[in-house]
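User: For documentation purposes, I need each entry recorded in a consistent format: the amino acid sequence on its own, followed directly by the corresponding structure tokens. There are two entries in this batch. Please keep commentary to a minimum and don't merge the entries.

Assistant: Recorded as requested. Entry 1:
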Amino acid sequence: MARPKIAAGGVGQAQVTQLTNGKWRARARMRNDSGELVQLRAEGATEDAAREELLSRAKTMTTHTKAIITAESTVQEAAEAWLPTVKVRAENGTLSWSTYENYETTVRLTRAAERHRGTPGQGKRVSVP
């Protein structure tokens, strides 16, 4: 029988084993936000500690966003959905705060320039093949 498919941001069933040194190791597969399967491993002094560390590592690899960008989405809608995911990565330590601040500034200034100039096509849907 095939394994159940893991949804984006989801963690599969953890396998926990006791090592010869007395520590516990937890292993599980997860699917990150981009859809890639990733093998996670964590160790702890107890079985529960190993599971907890495994879940903690999984949280740093996902943004838990449910925003859906479609072919009919505007660039502004895409930026508004994307920027919070970048902030979560900065909060988790998988992206530097200065990088997040640069992205946030670029999105904010681009929006302001579009409003100021009345850029043709502002708010129009962008078709993605």
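Entry 2:
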Amino acid sequence: MSGWPRTDSRATTAKRYMFKAAIPVLHVSNSAAAEEFYCNRLGFRQEFAYRPFGGPDPCYMGLARDEAELHVSSFSGDGVAGGVVFLLVDDVDELHEELRRKGVPIDTGPIDQDWGNREMYVKDADGNSIRFFCPIGG
């Protein structure tokens, strides 16, 4: 049987699956440099690091800060450098002050955008853009 929508009994009795989270994967060229930037400068913590060949790279690394998760990978097939990730935060201006104190170069902002967000952008050594945002006035 083919086609959509399904008309057999499985369509009404099938379990519904709910999406829970999306975890972006950014490509990096050097996992040690990425760990220093994301953990020491942006405040993430390393959850895991998979290095199957014993050296520093290639590496697939899981990072977390508060409720946000982010993965970085130096494996050749995992994306290309120059990716973008948006991270919702409580207060862009407070985060700006924290990152400024740590000497993190701010690429853009904080700035109020026409679409209702207050945003700030930073870039890692591979040109990946990490964009922090919160609703204006919220």
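Summary note for entry 2:
The longest strand covers residues 117-123.
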